[in-house]
Amino acid sequence: MQQRKLAFIGAGNMSRSIISGLIHSGYDSAHILASNPTAPRLEKLEEEFGIQTTVSNDDACAFADAIVLSVKPQVMGDMCKALRENNDLEGKLFISIAAGLPVSRLKEMLGGDYPVVRVMPNTPSLLGKGMSGLYADESISDEDRQYVEDMMNGVGETVWAEKEDDINGVIAAAGSSPAYFFLFLQAMQEEAMNMGFDKEAARLMVQQAMLGAAEMVCNNPDLELSELRAQVTSKGGTTAAAVNTLIDEGLSDIVAKAMRAAVDRAEEMAKQL
Ligand SMILES: NC(=O)C1=CN([C@@H]2O[C@H](COP(=O)(O)OP(=O)(O)OC[C@H]3O[C@@H](n4cnc5c(N)ncnc54)[C@H](OP(=O)(O)O)[C@@H]3O)[C@@H](O)[C@H]2O)C=CC1
Ligand SMILES: O=C(O)[C@@H]1CCC=N1
């Protein structure tokens, strides 16, 4: 992997997840810096990963060859405005992980035709189990593409989006989806507690079942998901009773609507911000 000097502007949940994955994949901590207006998050990152930190985005800009724009979409405009007013941005590669902000809008915010690659990661990057969608337009050099791909492969799996709009599909399927799984597990934990298990036992059961199921999916790429389900489902048995309830209550429809809502929200943000 090219060891460029990499700055994260915005040291929140997603930056921490990527930084953790990068450090564990061998990225030199001396080549990573994070900036954030409040110090506590920075102190934690320094302690945990030995990276450099600063409360000044301008110092981050001066340090970096590549800059991950990792603030909330709603503050991106103001943050970029200050960045372009105080710094020479020529020669920097920008990597935006923000939902709903197209490359064209990011270039306007940065005030020039700088190279911008979009990455849509997810928080399991923290454990090197991330899933990221990448998008770069034709102006981005092969070297820059490779750098971003290698960086995100260091923290999980990657797919390139052919069209920029496809990034919104990545948000629905992978960026936001860990939250869907957490919600599903939470509902299962709660029901297990209603059945009399204490909180810890309820959590252990649902998390271990999920982990085993996830590993079965990953270890059997040739088996359809429906086949894995069939292997658990005895005719006239308990699984059939549960699964038929989920199907009859419209689970597929609910999931489709939820994913569509994520895409709609990303499209709405693109118009508003
Ligand atoms: N969380 C996720 O699962 C995913 C998030 N994303 C994207 O990642 C980006 C960050 O999200 P996330 O990490 O969840 O959000 P967080 O709120 O956890 O992190 C944002 C960070 O930005 C800091 N910040 C605010 N203003 C500035 C500024 N002017 N300059 C520098 N830093 C600033 C905040 O500091 P403080 O809180 O101290 O004010 C905070 O630490 C978003 O654009 C989101 O769309 C993409 C994929 C997945
Ligand atoms: O909720 C959000 O907008 C961000 C993008 C994907 C996950 N978190």
Structural commentary:
InterPro entries: 6-PGluconate_DH-like_C_sf, NAD(P)-bd_dom_sf, P5C_Rdtase_cat_N, P5CR_dimer, Pyrroline-COOH_reductase. Residues 5-100 form the Pyrroline-5-carboxylate reductase catalytic N-terminal domain. This protein has an eight-stranded mixed sheet, sandwiched between helices. It has helices at 13-24, 39-49, 57-63, 73-86, 103-110, 142-153, 166-175, 177-194, 199-219, 225-232, 238-248, 251-272, and strands at residues 6-9, 32-35, 52-54, 66-69, 93-96, 116-120, 130-135, 156-160. The radius of gyration is 21 Å and the shape is elongated. By secondary structure, the chain is α/β, with parallel strands linked by helices. Helix 7 (166-175) packs across helix 12. The chain folds into two domains: 6-163, Rossmann fold, CATH 3.40.50; 177-269, ProC C-terminal domain-like fold. The two termini are 34 Å apart. The longest helix is centred in the C-terminal third of the chain and has 22 residues, at 251-272. Bound molecules: NADPH dihydro-nicotinamide-adenine-dinucleotide phosphate (NDP) and (2S)-3,4-dihydro-2H-pyrrole-2-carboxylic acid. The site of NADPH dihydro-nicotinamide-adenine-dinucleotide phosphate (NDP) has 27 residues, from helix 1 and helix 4.
